[in-house]
Design goal:
The chain is mainly beta. Helix content is about 5%, strand content about 40%.
Length: about 220
């Protein structure tokens, strides 16, 4: 386990509070109706050594993105996932996709029209990019790239056909055991290294606040289609 501590992304304290509860598909965002914008996330996103976790229910593929933070249109500096793309593959980009910042793998035959938990990692120490599917390692590379901090927004559910839920960002490379332990839970309190947690169950008018439950107040806004 490797924690990455910076002034921009400090450790999150553990605070007393209610116990975790089970996650259910009812706690999710219908991406066919709306997406979430996290403003300025490109300035505090860990450039490497991080884990993104979320639940996903895909109902189609094509030129779609489950999430996207792009500094340019040529893919030289972005954090993005296609789940799946038009070729039926799962893609995860972090940094420059044309060099060592891309992971891709054919989706399993059981991927569509079912809820799945995904964990995406960039691990500079291995080095490796990894994709965990339902708590199990599904794909990995043997190289990584670095996202270069820029004042760009993070878009959750940008063009994803389907639903997303319990979207979390950690500023370290989580172990398989940690991923499996927290996968079925709604986190009721902040945790060490949790720097963003958007449950995506907020019922709001367009422009309303999407709560960040990490304790850092990195709230997003709801944007209707």
């Amino acid at each position: 386990m490797k924690f990455v501590a910076t002034t921009a992304v400090p450790f999150s304290p553990v605070t007393a509070g209610p116990a975790d509860v089970a996650w259910t598909p009812a706690i999710s965002l219908d991406c066919t109706q709306a997406f979430v914008r996290i403003p300025g996330m490109g300035l505090w996103m860990p450039p490497t050594d991080y884990t993104l976790e979320f639940w996903c229910f895909s109902t189609g593929w094509g030129p779609s993105a489950a999430f996207n933070m792009a500094d340019d249109e040529d893919g030289r500096n972005r954090v993005l996932a296609h789940l799946p793309w038009t070729d039926g593959r799962l893609y995860f980009d972090s940094g420059n996709l044309s060099t060592t910042g891309r992971l891709h793998q054919p989706m399993p035959g059981t991927f569509m029209y079912q809820w799945h938990h995904l964990a995406l990692q960039v691990d500079s120490q291995a080095p490796a990019m990894r994709l965990f599917l339902d708590g199990q390692l599904y794909a990995a590379t043997t190289a990584t790239d670095t996202f270069k901090p820029r004042p760009v927004d993070f878009l959750i559910g940008l063009s994803q056909p389907g639903q997303l839920g319990e979207f979390r960002l950690w500023n370290y490379v989580r172990t398989p055991a940690e991923i499996q332990a927290d996968m079925p839970r709604v986190l009721a309190t902040s945790r060490p290294g949790l720097v963003g947690c958007w449950r995506l169950d907020d019922t709001l008018a367009p422009g309303g606040r999407i709560q960040d439950r990490s304790g850092y107040g990195r709230h997003g806004t709801l944007n209707r289609r």
